[in-house]
Amino acid sequence: MRKLLFILLLTFLMSDSYAQSKWGNDSISCITNLSLYREYYKQKNYEDALNPWRWTYINCPQSSGNIFKNGPIIIKSKMKQDKANKSAYIDTLMQIYDKRIEYFGKEGFVLGLKGSDLLRYDKSRYNEAYNYLKKSFEIEQKRSSAGALSAYFKSATIMQKNNELSKEDILQLYAELSEAVDYNLENNPKKIKFYTQTSTNIESLFTPYADCDALLSIFSEKFLKKEDDIKLLKRILKVLDSKECTDNNLFFDVSSRLYEIEPSALAASKMGKMSISRKEFSQAIKFCKEAIDLETDNDLQAKYYLGLADAYRNSGNFSQAREAAFKSLDLKNGWGEAYMNLGNIYLSGAKACGSEFEQKTVYWIAVDMFNLAKRDSDVYERASKSINTYSKYFPSTEVCFFNNVEKNSSYTIGCWINKKTIARTSD
Question: Which residue from 98, 198, 345, 355 has the least number of CB within 10 angstroms?
Answer without folding.
Answer: 355
